[in-house]
Prior knowledge:
Chain A is an all-alpha fold. Chain A has helices at about 1-15, 25-30, 35-65, 70-95, 95-105, 105-110, 115-125, 130-155, 170-185, 190-195.
Amino acid sequence: xxxxxxxxxxxxxxxxxxxxxxxxxxxxxxxxxxxxxxxxxxxxxxxxxxxxxxxxxxxxxxxxxxxxxxxxxxxxxxxxxxxxxxxxxxxxxxxxxxxxxxxxxxxxxxxxxxxxxxxxxxxxxxxxxxxxxxxxxxxxxxxxxxxxxxxxxxxxxxxxxxxxxxxxxxxxxxxxxxxxxxxxxxxxxxxxxxxx
Amino acid sequence: xxxxxxxxxxxxxxxxxxxxxxxxxxxxxxxxxxxxxxxxxxxxxxxxxxxxxxxxxxxxxxxxxxxxxxxxxxxxxxxxxxxxxxxxxxxxxxxxxxxxxxxxxxxxxxxxxxxxxxxxxxxxxxxxxxxxxxxxxxxxxxxxxxxxxxxxxxxxxxxxxxxxxxxxxxxxxxxxxxxxxxxxxxxxxxxxxxxxxxxxxxxxxxxxxxxxxxxxxxxxxxxxxxxxxxxxxxxxxxxxxxxxxxxxxxxxxxxxxxxxxxxxxxxxxxxxxxxxxxxxxxxxxxxxxxxxxxxxxxxxxxxxxxxxxxxx
Lengths: 196, 312
């Protein structure tokens, strides 16, 4: 039951992009085309899952025993940067196709605040290791969802006549705002009523 | 003890020390892991790519057909022709030649963007005393625009606040998109392009709502200071500086390449004949000597008497 709660919370209710406003740079800049949005979203799922798991391990095995939890932001950044670099090496080494589909998005995730965000959220929520992994995975799915939806909207907007001052980034933010309002529908009270 | 506020107890000191050492050890371990992995997987940073990227100017203007300079650098590595970066000019060509070991020539004559309108604009920009000193005399105003200071916003309202919908609106949107700051508003609101700084990227042509910015060859000696295809009577009604299509320039300089189309003078720059007589004969003086177009940014002329168009 906890896992269903986690996946609904981080994909819909507390979506990192639309509610916590994290990772907006990549969200706005990569959603011009559907394929690149999907690529970034998939990379995000992998990086977020692994980052949430790894930071849990470091937090509970290193930071807590030594009593230096005040260093969590710095440590987590270090780990995420290392993790992304390792992933990049592995994708490049294992197959060219994987690297060309995911590799170009990995550097963008090196210092992405959404990745750091889910790591900190998961640690502060006192999850177990597996729950952390699951929270990261759900947040990644949430990111994938909104980028793919957003890219579809923007591909359609390309065909429409838009007043010149709104073209490009402004209309993207207006669409993102409307999407965020739609996602407000998924609040906890609504879900509690729905699930009984 | 004066520094008591910042003094650490031994316990706190140890605490910080443990933190520092832990971060250091963690970073060191991560670094060793990464370098070991790099050795195993044979991972290399692409040095060539970085060199090509450094040679490109970084305007991300899209002239080469790629969205960003990064993408073009990648394309060069993947055997695309390295001569597509016109904005980079000679320096980029030289750097790419060094990096690739072949001669890179950016083809085609250099062209620059120029504003084809000489109407002075006095925006009532509040307290600027100079703008008050030069009331707008050339073009009739349709209404007083006091909205967002942007050409596209202004043009959205009945094609701008001037009777002439073809000329420069003077809000400087082109100056804001120019990657090299070659465009500037003069103190009287007139917009200039410094043709020595212009890198031919064309971003200003895209952003301009009236199309008053047009290409001219960098070697052009004259520029037509009008963009209105309206008839003589119409132009004379709303602008004292516009081209009326009188064809006097055609007659005075038959070899100069002047030709009037749709009541607007054009110059065929491939004709090398003398254009001076035609320029001087123009009754509204809307044919400007290109050399006199002075770069702004450095405030050159502040009064209309000294302004370069008057000297033409």
